[in-house]
Fold each of these.
Amino acid sequence: MSKDKFDLTGKIALVTGAGAGGGLGHAMAVGLAGAGADVVVSDIDTDGAATTSQEIQSLGRRSIAITCDNSQRDEIFAMFEEIDKAFGRIDILINNVGAGARYRPEELPFEEWQRVLDISLSSSFVCAVQAGKRMIAQRTGGSIINISSIAGSHALGRGNLPHSVAKSGVNQMTRELATEWGPHGIRVNAIQPATIRTPSWNSIADTLDWDFEGWQRHLLLGIPLGRLGEPDDLVGPAIFLASDAAAFVTGHLLAVDGGNLAMDAGGSIQWPALRKDR
Ligand SMILES: NC(=O)c1ccc[n+]([C@@H]2O[C@H](COP(=O)([O-])OP(=O)(O)OC[C@H]3O[C@@H](n4cnc5c(N)ncnc54)[C@H](O)[C@@H]3O)[C@@H](O)[C@H]2O)c1
């Protein structure tokens, strides 16, 4: 197969949550640009989005930054109108924004349940429909990539209930949209990462009362490849799913997890140990 199958030149992509302060979205946005795409960078963080966008422009690609709070439908609608004005089309959507909340189920406030479902699931649906409508009208197909999690397929325990439920919804939304939109040539796939060492993951060490190092060692026991992920690990899979190399791939949930799902995702009824020094 020719290497050109991975070429995204001429494609317009939107990556949500792609601000430079984030992790996976930033890596995938710059990665798509490296493969030739022009990339719309959106984030609730205006400065972070602008920084990623400048990085993409310095690669010689077109890019705009849009400030958008994905929990607000009106802001998503406005974002797509801005994309219409700037580029007049959309070929690739990466639904990357997600939220988490860590509570024991019996202590989980309903508002937190709702917030996580809104940001991780409903906002991805709203973005997918906005992109899908345009792709259908363009009659050129497209690729939608939903960033799910290994938590969408296996229970993780230790306070992940709303995250896990939202991501299982993302998985099923991926299959349903792939089925509905296949006849329009729109491919819809999901990526299921295991723990990736993003800035927010690294900052957990300072915010939780857990033995963080011990916890990382526990996670590694479930990862055959013997390491946690890095944001760059998402880039190749994202380019593949966005490109013609994956022309016959839709409705697929692609684990990017070092083998974690193959070993049952490392869920447990045990919470991390508390730090002795707190
Ligand atoms: N990091 C991991 O270990 C991991 C594992 C599995 C799945 N995921 C999923 O990958 C995706 C990205 O994760 P990450 O760790 O890079 O996240 P992150 O928290 O580091 O960054 C996400 C970005 O989204 C932005 N954002 C947050 N709320 C927003 C909102 N309401 N509207 C718009 N932008 C908003 C942030 O400003 C940030 O730039 C999420 O969907 C997450 O659930 C992450």
Note: The chain has one domain: 3-198+230-257.
Amino acid sequence: MGARTGSQFLEGLRKTRREIWVDGERIEDVTTHPKLRGGAESLAAIFDRQHAYAADCLYVHLDNGQPTNVSHMIPRSKDELRHRHAGLVRLSEGSMGIMGRTPDYMNMKFAAFASAPRVWAGADGRNERGAQNLLAFQRRLAEADLSLTHTIIQPTTDKRTDSQILGNKVTVRKVGQTADGIIVRGARVLATLAPYADEQTVYPGQPIPAGATEYAIAFALPLDTPGLKFLCRDSASAPGADPFDKPLSSRFDEQDAFCIFDDVLVPWDRIFIDGDVEIYNSMRQTGYAISMTTQSTVRALTKLEFAYGLATRMAELIGDHSPATTEMLGEMACYVRMTANALELSLEQAREREDGVWFPNGAVLEPMRAMLAVWMPRVAEIITLIGSHNLLTTPSRAQLDDPKLRPLIDEMLSGADGATADERAAVFRMAWDLVGSSLGGRGFLYERFYLTSAARNKQMLHSRFFDRTRSQALLNDMLSRAKCRLHSH
Ligand SMILES: Cc1cc2nc3c(=O)[nH]c(=O)nc-3n(C[C@H](O)[C@H](O)[C@H](O)COP(=O)(O)OP(=O)(O)OC[C@H]3O[C@@H](n4cnc5c(N)ncnc54)[C@H](O)[C@@H]3O)c2cc1C
């Protein structure tokens, strides 16, 4: 089939009888329910977008000759990396970077997984069957242009014991086996996009300890698999609101769900890892973390650029050219420039793996995981500082359209330099929807945690990934100039 249209995507969602709960209600049709429809329509528009910008967003799949979304590509040259980059930018613009988990996010991970079947199989080929299952799944994912959700994080019950994994009876684990496959039980967080996904995936996120075999599982399942249940958070989608009043929440709530596996059968051909802790802990070798950080940094850059444009216009609309505001806008410009620089340098310094697969330079992008989790909340804070009470003096569409109120609004709620009351209300409403609405609150939490906390990312960067050779050499040079003996003989 290849790249789907929006209506084909919606048709796929209607076909599966998934168990999605929002508030007290099990949702029958996620494409029409008032609390979910806005997200479904925006995602459908992103499927259509790949055809509207086909030159950037699509490539010809080597196996079947079909036009396919670029996020499925396994790049074989720097040019292919640049092609994929252009497509990712176009896709992120579909939601101004507000939807973090458009399907390209997971597609990128599975393309990286499929680029390295030897990692899944193990050096001695002991998990060859799992590797073949993974390859077949990724082929189908690309050909059928599916939408995936995923859960890789253990739920929190008691932080003193959660990290121990062994003996944890909450997190998802293998509890049995039949002739047809394995039985899994437990829960995982947090399935973003669950109502809009065709399949649920479970794969290695954080390393697990030796001996934790029942926790060392990876698989993919259709969302309507019996026993699979998704408890969504409260909707942030402002059902029934005029899109003028809630321009972002009425469109871009991608939802997040707690995922329960209530004795779920995973068929043998859907299992990628079954009990092999060593293989489970070796997934970074596939390059998937680089692909994930690439997609999420592209998406974040679009959101930063959008937020910068919005904040600049807010300041103009109220004639705020104060040094304090100008400095904060300059701070936003720094975040935009640094993020763009990191992406460009990662492409410029792209590297070819020994098997001919190309990746952006992961070391360049690695700090973005820690910094974006701090910059994004700061950007939200800047928008509230510039906006102040103006974020709440925003007549609604109905008030603007009221013939009695309108002349008063025009007289008292227009903006600086002749800006109309319409534009002022539209811009400040958009800003509040970005940082202060229910969607804004969720966005704040998302940016802080979706690639784990800034704290953990900084710790991992320092203790595992950062090449400190030059820093060490500079220090040693200075110590020797200070006539300090470094080694005893
Ligand atoms: C909106 C949203 C959507 C998400 N979507 C998905 C999804 O689709 N799929 C998925 O698998 N997961 C998803 N997640 C889960 C996400 O991966 C986890 O929330 C994330 O990994 C953080 O884990 P945690 O909540 O245990 O927080 P922690 O990492 O435990 O952080 C909690 C607090 O502890 C601090 N902290 C943690 N470790 C340290 C340390 N070593 N030293 C000092 N301080 C520390 C942090 O700074 C933070 O304040 C989502 C999360 C959110 C909020």
Note: The first strand starts at residue 20 and ends at 22.
